[in-house]
Amino acid sequence: MPGIKVKDNESFDEAYRRFKKQCDRNLIVTEARARRYFEPMTEIRKKQKISARKKMLKKLYMLRRYESRL
Fold this sequence. Notes:
By secondary structure, the chain is mostly helical. 71% of the residues lie in helices and 0% in strands. It contains three helices and no strands. The chain has helices at residues 12-25, 28-34, 41-69.
């Protein structure tokens, strides 16, 4: 769970900004949205399959891009 210590001469806006950054880094909001509704296992597998395909295509794209420079 993210938490920050407010410095002596720090305004509320600055502290809030630091807190939001920390929440984004820990993916708290993303996870909360994902857990908002029940997701059947088929949907989870479908999303995993799509993300695996995207990851593979990105890797292939980067490899081809690297090879073209040689």
